[in-house]
Amino acid sequence: MLRIDVITIFPEMLEAVTRFGITGRAHDRGLWQLQAWNPRDFVTDAWRRVDDRPYGGGPGMVMLAQPLADTLAAIHQDRQALPGANTGGAGAKVVALSPQGRPFDDAVARDLAAGGGVILLAGRYEAVDQRLLDRHVDEEWAVGEFVVSGGELPAMMIIDAAVRLLPGALHDAGSAQQDSFADGLLDCPHYTRPEVFEGVPVPEVLLSGHHARIAVWRRQQALRATLRKRPDLIEHARRSGLLGAADEAFLQTEVLPDSSDSG
Ligand code: 9D3
Q1: Residue 162 phi/psi, 5° resolution?
Q2: Is 179 noted as a catalytic residue in this protein?
Q3: Which of 154, 164, 224, 247 is catalytic?
Q4: Ligand 1 centroid to 126 CA: how many Å?
């Protein structure tokens, strides 16, 4: 049972990952659990404020350190009280979601799925008081080089990416291994019925029933798609030793299309 705690002023947002699709089914099956914590429940002033104006001036508001520290203390206590298998006991890592964080990727998702759970801090407003980050947060993760309005959607992306890797989460165990980025290449094209759509036939090799030839074709299509859309990944796969002699021979025969093509 993977336990994920999320600190958020919008806990209802996180319910979606427990209800729908692969993560919803994995939740129903008891493969993982979510605890959402609202820092507003840990403040006692009349307005239940969790933010205030930034020292030094400037736009936006800053999340107060104390409500977040009190929320974290309650989470650590709750984890210590219920040290189930793979919940990490009291020792779960605290991760703040932040545009300034380290890029979250497939390797971090696999670490998370293999580990004892995590406490995710999903912020709103412009920032979190730096003293809370310095004293109570172990790492910061970002989900891409774009800005969204808060940490909740990034938290849901991270949860989804990790939970689908849990043993038993996918119908087909091979899917997680075959996923793009697991082998360092983009996916090959896929086809289903009908055999001809708007005059375009399915590549005949896929109808041949020749499994070895189909595997070679798919590998070559994956190499072609990666070379055209993400040539940086070809270099990375090469340096990681993921390309064999047959891959290199195929890439030698590939001519790049005109760069004005969309690929
Ligand atoms: C002007 C400074 N802004 C930072 C670029 C302030 C700011 C905007 C939006 C601070 C936080 C946010 C909310 N975003 C997240 O919490 C967030 C995020 C993101 O915006 N992009 C990529 N990954 C992440 S993880 C959390």
Answers
A1: -80, -45
A2: yes
A3: 164
A4: 8
For 204-217, what is the mean pLDDT?
Answer: 98
Which of 40, 99, 140, 219 is flagged as catalytic?
99
Number of domains in the chain: 2
pLDDT at 176: 75
Displacement of CA 125 from its chain's centroid (Å): 22
Q: At what angle do helices 245-253 and 211-229 cross, to 10 degrees?
A: 60
Average pLDDT over the chain, rounded to an integer: 94
34 DSSP assignment? E
pTM of the full structure: 0.95
Q: How many helices (H) and strands (E) does the chain have?
A: 10, 10
Query: pLDDT by residue (tens digit) across 58-91?
Result: 999 999 999 999 999 999 999 999 877 566 555 7
Mutation test residue for ligand 1: of 63, 108, 148, the one with most atoms within 8 Å of CB: 148
d(CA 91, CA 80): 8
In a shared domain, residues 156 and 188 = no
Protein residue with its CA nearest to atom 9 in ligand 1: 149
Domain boundary among 163, 188, 208: 163
> Which tops the pLDDT comparison, 228 or 173?
228
- Domain encompassing residue 198: 180-263
Q: Are residues 91 and 184 in the same domain?
A: no
238 catalytic per annotation: no
Closest among 80, 83, 67 to 8, alpha carbons compared: 67
Residue partners of 117: CB distance under 8 A and separation at least 6: 2, 3, 4, 5, 79, 86, 87, 88, 92
For the chain, the residue count is: 263
Would you say residue 116 has pLDDT above 60? yes
CB of 11 closer than 6 angstroms to any ligand 1 atom:
no
